[in-house]
Design a protein that fits this description.
The complex is a heterodimer of chains A (about 400) and B (about 1100).
Chain A: E1 16-21, E2 26-33, E3 37-45, H1 51-55, E4 63-67, E5 71-72, E6 91-93, E7 96-97, H2 110-116, E8 120-123, H3 127-137, E9 140-146, H4 155-164, E10 183-184, E11 208-214, H5 219-227, E12 230-236, H6 241-246, E13 251-254, H7 265-274, E14 280-283, H8 285-293, E15 298-314, E16 319-331, E17 340-346, E18 352-357, E19 362-365, H9 380-390
Parallel strand pairs in A: 3-4, 4-6, 5-7, 6-8, 11-12, 11-13, 13-14, 14-19
Antiparallel strand pairs in A: 1-2, 1-9, 2-8, 3-9, 10-12, 15-16, 15-17, 17-18, 18-19
Chain B: E1 9-13, H1 25-39, E2 43-47, E3 63-65, H2 71-81, E4 85-87, H3 92-104, H4 107-110, E5 114-115, H5 120-127, H6 129-138, E6 146-149, H7 152-162, E7 166-170, E8 180-182, H8 185-198, E9 204-208, E10 214-222, E11 228-236, E12 249-251, H9 258-275, E13 280-288, E14 295-301, H10 306-315, H11 319-327, E15 354-360, E16 381-387, H12 390-400, H13 418-426, H14 432-441, H15 446-453, H16 457-472, H17 475-484, H18 490-501, H19 506-513, H20 517-526, E17 532-535, E18 549-553, E19 567-571, H21 582-597, E20 601-606, E21 621-624, H22 629-639, E22 643-645, H23 651-662, E23 667-668, H24 672-679, H25 681-691, E24 698-701, H26 704-714, E25 718-722, E26 732-734, H27 737-747, E27 756-760, E28 766-775, E29 779-790, E30 800-802, H28 809-825, E31 829-839, E32 842-849, H29 856-863, H30 867-875, H31 880-883, E33 894-900, E34 921-927, H32 930-940, E35 950-954, H33 960-972, E36 976-980, H34 981-989, E37 994-997, H35 1007-1012, E38 1018-1021, H36 1029-1041, E39 1046-1047, H37 1050-1064, H38 1073-1076
Helix pairs in contact in B: 1-11, 2-3, 5-6, 13-15, 14-16, 15-16, 19-20, 21-30, 24-25, 26-27, 32-37, 33-37
The chains are: A alpha/beta (about 400), B alpha/beta (about 1100).
């Protein structure tokens, strides 16, 4: 494999950084954020806004994320636009990091935010070249490192580290992001009112009691559930069906989360035991777990869907939703048993985006109706869940 | 939904002449719509009075009516064609207004024509301020507070609700005159009373000021299934208070978080649904308070717009094409995305580059007018650039303007005192961005600059980075590396790379280092620093792109692979300006179409987002790049075409021709040396002497000392102009010594290389334009156009008639012979335009342009032969014989071309016609009768010639004799005459009834009183020289304000009077080009 060496800015203050891919491709740029070395699966996200939400989405655990939009950091970082306790990505790759941040809500620069949270960033590389490589050859593992105190980086060893890393398949990443103990969302510091509420119809507070299984849940899902009148108890991924049912919830929510769904046998079992007993709604990894629980198969996509412009057709209304997505694995549409209806598909590649059980009150979507970042076109799904619980 | 089968014939209305605010973007959208709907098997009926458009090429519609876009004319078309549907949303405000008129007056109902795309109530809701405000409130969105006042009392009552600062806008004043921002009650009362007296209908709009807020735009599309997508988001660098058409804008939005952006997106979707635009695109503008993030809705355009053209070019998503398909029933998910081919159009484009749009103004042509940028658009064109970063895109954009900047240069007045500088920063002006540079260089803080400009600090910081980099270069230390080619120095190499990443051009570096540009280029290539080309693909590389649409950026991977086909590269015309606009783009598009048919791969290079040439469909490969020597050579080096065409894009590519040729680029068609022979005064004289043709007596001078004796020996009046200009820039007719001295001393910078040309002005000569095509052996005349106005008015500003209406056969034959001889002497291969003046039976050659001229599309439409296509094929080696164009066509009908002027945007500017071109566009009128053709052209310009009423006549002494017949004819036709003292006396003596008015300042009533009382319907006022200039100017300005036809030359007035006569004898009729060309 040839090496793509990027031209660098003459910025003496900036430390050199290198992203090495498992196919031997090397991108040289400058460091921002933290320093050190990290490995992960290198993926790209095509959303033009929402880098802070992307950084803090637990589903990116194990991944080094490239933004295809070239200017990142423009509007800084703030306390409200977080999707979990802090940045979750393994590394962050951009074309140009904007040292100046301008926005009335901005509190910190992206550089400060990343360095305080120990996330390595690399800038000034040809992110389009990187993206094209991932599109053509599929996502691959990479190693991102900054120069050491003597100004050296051992490029060959980085390539080797990328090659020898085990990758995401078969790895239970959920354990790295799930909450250690159950908690009530309304007691959580980040649950305070959201200035950017999208719900037009104020709901009765706490009308429905929902247990949310945390496989790496995004805060905006919890905010949305709350806005739709749910009182949410968040529980660790390994909570059993028995424990959940003992809490007598009105419904169970299966969250998004990182990595490969297949190794999560404990969760698949839990979902199987819940189906038919309580209304169940799953998003992203939650959808994949539902698919597996129903006897379906999942597979890894070549380079995944990560962005805020994915068209999804909703068969019931025949309308198209522009959706926010972040997944590398997918439920095989042909593996779905005839006990479920296909409710949504992706118009770009006809992959499965949503299912609904024909008998049980259970449905799930592969994409992110909670958006954040991304369009709010699919927020109706939260109402659908509350309706299901009301029936 | 599949496409509708209940409609078969669709009427599309274009936008007419190019005017400020409505330029070739509507040819781009209309052409796309015609193509898309024809593809679907619909019959297309098109109405557009603008002959320079691609859409009016007879191939693009089934029935093409080059007729005035007025409700009564379009009704005639409807009556004749009986279309089933009318698509009103693709021809700008003109088409929308006419469609509304037709709908409201019941014409559409009468002929059973359905409005598709947007229905009448939706258009009304979007266009009517009050209805729009109501709709916004209904869906919970905020709009700036506003109200209408007709009296001071009403205005005072409003201010309590609106609060300070408040904007006062008088209704219907020229260029928004009399408006302003009031910060306190005293100012407010003063502005209200001035505003009320200035507004012809005594009406003021009072608005809450959001000046200084951040300004954003979203381009939204909706289909019949209620799917809504956002195609592009745009952030204005210049905040609220500067019209978006006059703002530097950036796509996508840079300074909103996702939460804020999604809020705006939600609002946009709610708006398009509430307004009820059924299908198609809309542009929605928002203002955001930079301190609190509060968002308010400014306005919505329920149609495609200039911004949607920009959005299409910025993203690769063809909004107009898709809008047309949605209008006939398709849904977004049923239409494929052309660029990826495999994904549907129902998605939101995402881009992985930065797009910058920079306007281009023409204030130098309208001296005397206020150059402040306001909420009234004043720019005449724009350049768009694509780069990897904002800095790179901005610098590319600045050099794309072709106004002399080679990037983010130093302002020549950067040393102005601080007080002056701060006012240059505070009051929006054309060069504000360069004044920001001088502020940054002086160390002014971003906070301070922000407090003056309200330009978001994010952009200011990016500008600072460019300035800081420039400052950081150690020139003495690194210059030797640039000069002597020691390229091993890593620091030098690094500086060069960083400069390129920041978008610096070779010319900027050559200025910084003070070395020749060719040296920078050579060294740069030696160190392997070449631009990389990337694809505009709508999806940030997520899918493979099928469509070859490229831009350059300084990065690592060049993803563009040239083919090994035979290629021809066509250089476009860059941003529109007065004198170089859509006509040249038309020629470039034709070249691409013709050469494609001949099997060449065509490569288009252009930087103008409004055009058809920058549609990815037009050529095989599109490079959206600045038209500078560096950028063009880079593409040439990459693609290695067998030929480059420079003669179609106007002056822009011609200016590059020599340098390109020297760099080894094969220029096809007439050689750059021969082009230079026609432009160089001395060489051209030799050409004329050789073939025995006459020029008006002339000479050159570099100072007033030289000029004065020359002028008196030639005899006044003389025409003076700088050498090498387009559109008659700074060209003047001078009647005596004093103004000549003034001109030489102040108006131009003359030098031995660039002397001032002084020509004897042939008074009252007939001017003739000839367009011809030559293959090197055979020359065929395309058309001979006789100007209505005498020589001395710039040919672009004159009305002209094809074929000639007063010349005799001998003169026409002579003109032909001269043209053949000139083509031969200049070795023309391709197009040639010659301007002649005929005086006292003598024919003089005024100038020869061996290239495509502004009149090529007009002539092509008049004679039914696509001259530019033929010329492109000739340049590639075909002969006229093989192309089958060997005989000249003299149509049995008349085509009249008439110019359209932007004076209503430039109050205070001299609106008199002269050798300097001032029109922005043109229209065409065709009829079997020359007077009716002229009447149609006038109507298409927006002047409806009156059939009865009062004619005001005031002419200079030398015209008194000729005006008698005109006046007599007017009285015969039933007009009442009004005249000033001198003219009135002559008319009275000749037996006519005349109402006398006072000359201004000599008593009341004056003509002004008549105009204000709506008691004048036609004005004939020929200029008397500089003494009464201000009076004449006032009359012209008032005529423009009140839409009264005004004629300032005797031939023009005669043509108008004949046209009125023709109109009185019968209604005009409409005929499509296809029938004329049969």
């Amino acid at each position: 494999m040839g090496q793509i060496r990027d031209r660098t800015l003459l910025q003496e203050d900036n430390m050199k950084a290198i992203l090495a891919l498992s196919d031997g491709t090397v991108f040289e740029g400058q460091q921002f954020g933290a320093t050190g070395e990290t490995v992960g699966e290198v993926v790209f996200n095509t959303s033009m806004t929402g880098y802070q939400e992307v950084l803090t989405d637990p589903s990116y655990k194990g991944q080094i994320v490239t933004m295809t939009y070239p200017l990142i950091g423009n509007y800084g970082c703030n306390e409200a636009d977080i999707e979990s306790i802090g940045p979750q990505v393994e590394g962050f790759v951009v074309r140009e990091y904007s040292a100046y941040h301008s926005n009335w809500r901005s509190k910190w620069s992206l550089d400060t935010y990343l360095s305080e949270n120990g996330i390595i960033g690399i800038q000034n590389i040809d992110t389009r070249a990187l993206t094209r490589r991932l599109r053509v050859h599929g996502v691959m593992n990479g190693c991102l490192a900054t120069e050491d105190a003597d100004g050296n980086i051992d490029v060959a060893s980085l390539v080797e580290k990328a090659q020898s890393w085990h990758g995401l398949v078969g790895w239970d990443l959920v354990q790295r992001v799930t909450c250690p103990n159950p908690y009530a969302w309304n007691q959580h510091p980040s649950s305070s009112t959201d200035d950017f509420s999208t719900n037009q119809i104020p709901s009765e507070n706490g009308k429905y009691r929902v247990v949310a299984m945390d496989f790496g849940i995004k805060y905006n899902i919890l905010r949305q559930l709350t806005e739709h009148g749910c009182e949410v108890q968040v529980v660790p991924a390994k909570t059993t069906a028995e424990e959940i049912l003992a809490a007598e919830p009105d419904g169970v929510f299966l969250s998004n989360g990182p990595g490969d769904p297949e190794p999560l046998d404990y969760a698949i079992k839990t979902v199987q035991e819940l189906l038919g007993k309580k209304p169940v709604f799953g998003i992203c990894l939650g959808h994949q777990l539902m698919g597996l629980a129903l006897g379906g198969k999942t597979y890894k996509l070549k380079f995944g869907h990560r962005g805020a412009n994915q068209p999804v057709k909703h068969f019931e209304t025949d309308q198209v939703e522009i959706t926010s997505q972040n997944h590398g694995f997918c439920v095989d549409i042909d593996s779905m048993p005839n006990t479920v209806d296909i409710t949504h598909i992706n118009l770009n590649d006809d992959t499965l985006e949503g299912i609904q059980h024909r008998e049980y009150p259970a449905f799930s979507v592969q994409y992110h109706p909670e958006a954040s970042p991304g369009p709010h076109d699919a927020s109706y799904l939260f109402s659908r869940f509350t309706q299901m619980m009301g029936e | 939904m599949p496409k509708r089968t209940d409609i078969e014939k669709i009427l599309i209305i274009g936008s007419g002449a190019i005017i400020i605010g409505q330029a070739c973007e509507f040819d781009y959208s209309g052409t796309q719509a015609c193509k898309a709907l024809k593809e679907e098997g619909y019959q297309i009926v098109l109405v557009n009075s603008n002959p320079a458009t691609i859409m009016t090429d007879p191939d693009f519609a089934d029935r093409t009516y080059v007729e005035p876009i007025t409700a009564d004319t379009v009704e005639l078309v409807i009556e004749k064609e009986r279309p089933h549907a009318l698509l009103p949303t693709l021809g700008g405000q003109t088409a929308l207004n006419v469609s509304v008129e037709l709908a409201e007056s019941g014409v559409l109902e009468k002929y059973d024509v359905e409005l598709i795309g947007a229905k009448l109530p939706a258009i009304q809701k979007a266009e009517d301020r009050a209805l729009f405000k109501q709709a916004m409130v209904k869906i919970g969105l905020e709009v700036p507070k506003s109200g209408i006042a007709h009296t001071s009392a009403e205005a005072i009552a409003l201010i309590d609700e609106i609060g300070f600062p408040a904007i006062i806008r008088p209704a219907f004043t020229l260029g928004g005159t009399g408006g302003g921002i009031a910060y306190n009650i005293e100012e407010y009362q003063k502005m209200v009373s001035t505003g009320l007296s200035l507004s012809p209908i005594s009406e003021l709009l009072i608005e809450e000021s959001v000046i200084g807020w951040k300004e954003f735009e979203l381009e939204v599309m909706r289909d019949g299934a209620d799917n809504v997508v956002i195609i592009c988001s745009i952030e204005n660098v210049d905040p609220m208070g500067v019209h978006t058409g006059d703002s530097i804008t950036v796509a996508p939005i840079q300074t909103l978080t996702d939460k804020e952006y999604q809020l705006m997106r939600d609002s946009a979707i709610k708006i398009i649904r509430e307004i009820g635009v059924d299908t198609g695109g809309s542009n929605i503008q928002f203002a955001v308070d930079p301190k609190t993030g509060k968002q308010v809705v400014i306005e919505m355009n329920p149609r495609v717009s200039r911004s949607s053209a920009l959005a299409s070019k910025a993203t690769g998503f063809p909004i107009a094409k898709i809008a047309a398909k949605l209008a006939v029933g398709y849904n977004l998910d049923e239409i494929p995305n052309d660029i990826t081919a495999e994904t549907p159009a129902c998605f939101e484009p995402t881009i992985d580059y930065v797009v910058v749009k920079i306007p281009r103004w023409a204030f130098e042509k309208f001296q005397g007018t206020d150059e402040t940028l306001t909420t009234q658009m004043k720019s005449v064109g724009e350049a768009m650039s694509i780069g990897g970063t904002f800095k790179e895109a901005l610098q590319k954009g600045l050099r794309s303007l072709e106004t002399g900047w080679s990037g983010y240069d130093n302002h020549p007045l950067e040393e102005i005192p601080l007080s002056e500088l701060s006012s240059k920063l505070t009051i929006p002006n054309v060069e504000r961005i360069f004044y920001i540079k001088s502020a940054l260089k002086r160390g002014m803080s971003i906070d301070d600059i922000y407090s003056y400009t309200h330009i978001d600090p994010f952009f200011l910081y990016n500008l600072q980075e460019i300035v800081d980099f420039e400052k950081s270069i150690n020139i003495p230390q690194t210059r030797p590396f640039l000069e002597n080619g020691n390229h091993a120095d890593t620091e030098f190499v690094s500086i060069m790379r960083q400069a390129k990443q920041l978008g610096f051009s070779d010319r900027q570096l050559s200025d910084i280092y003070d070395v020749p540009e060719t040296q920078v280029r050579e060294t740069r290539k030696n160190i392997g620093l070449e631009p990389t080309y990337k694809t505009v693909d709508t999806c940030a590389a997520e899918f493979e792109a099928e469509t070859p649409y490229y831009y350059s950026t300084c990065s690592s991977e060049d993803e563009v692979r040239p083919t090994d086909k035979e290629k021809i590269m066509i250089l476009g015309g860059g941003p529109n300006r007065i004198g170089q606009g859509i006509e040249f783009d038309y020629c470039c598009v034709h070249a691409a179409m013709a050469l494609k048919t001949d099997g060449y791969e065509t490569i288009m290079v252009n930087s103008n987002p409004e055009t058809v040439s920058t549609d990815y469909d037009t050529s095989d490969r599109l490079y959206f790049e600045p038209l500078t020597c560096e950028d063009v050579l880079n593409i040439y080096d990459k693609e290695k075409p067998i030929g480059v065409i420079v003669q179609f894009g106007g002056q822009t590519p011609l200016n590059l021709a020599m340098a390109l040729k020297e760099a080894g680029v094969p220029i096809i068609g007439t050689s750059p040396e021969d082009i230079a022979r026609s432009e160089n005064r001395q060489l051209f004289k030799e050409v004329l002497d050789e073939i025995g043709l006459m020029q008006p007596p002339n000479s050159t001078a570099t100072s007033s000392e030289e000029a004065i004796p020359i002028a008196s020996s030639l005899g006044y009046p003389v025409i003076v102009r700088p050498s090498f200009v387009l559109g008659g820039r700074a060209m003047q007719i001078v009647y005596d010594e004093k103004p000549l001295q003034e001109y030489m001393d102040t108006a131009v910078k003359a030098s031995p290389e660039h002397p001032v040309l002084i020509d004897k002005y042939l008074e009252e000569a007939i001017e003739v334009d000839v367009d011809a095509i030559s293959d090197g052996h055979l020359t065929v005349i395309g058309g001979i156009m006789e100007h209505i106005e005498e020589a001395g008015v710039h040919s672009g500003d004159s009305d002209c008639v094809l074929p000639p209406y007063t010349l005799v056969d001998e003169q026409i034959d002579q003109l032909k012979e001269y043209t053949y001889a000139l083509a031969k002497a200049l070795n023309v291969r391709g197009l040639m335009n010659v301007q002649y003046a005929i005086k006292n039976e003598e024919i003089y050659v005024l100038e020869v342009n061996p290239r495509a001229s502004r009149t090529v599309p007009f002539v092509s439409k008049a004679i039914g032969v696509p001259l530019a296509k033929l010329a492109a094929r000739v340049m590639a080696g075909k002969t006229l014989d093989t192309l089958g164009f060997t005989t000249e066509i003299e149509p049995p009908y008349f085509s009249v071309k008439a110019p359209v002027f932007p004076f209503n945007r430039f109050p205070g500017a001299n609106s008199r016609l002269g050798p300097e071109m001032k029109s922005t566009g043109e229209v065409m009128g065709i009829d079997n009768d020359v007077s009716r053709a002229f009447a149609k052209a006038q109507k298409a310009c927006g002047y409806t010639l009156p059939l009865k009423g009062h004619a005001f006549i005031s002419v200079r002494n030398k015209d008194k004799r000729s005006v008698i017949f005109i006046a007599k004819k007017l009285t015969d036709m039933g007009f009442k005459l009004i005249a000033t003292h001198g003219t009135a006396k002559v008319l009275l003596r000749n037996g006519m009834d005349v109402q006398l008015v006072y000359s201004i300042g000599k008593g009341r009533p004056t003509i002004h009183d008549y105009i204000k009382n709506h008691a004048v319907d036609l004005i004939i006022n020929t200029p008397t020289g500089d003494i009464h200039r201000s009076n004449e100017l006032l009359i012209r300005q008032m005529a423009i304000e009140h839409d009264i036809p005004i004629f300032s030359t005797i031939p023009g007035a005669a043509a108008a009077v004949n046209a009125i006569d023709a109109l009185q004898r019968g209604e005009i009729s409409v005929t499509p080009l296809q029938d004329y060309h049969k």
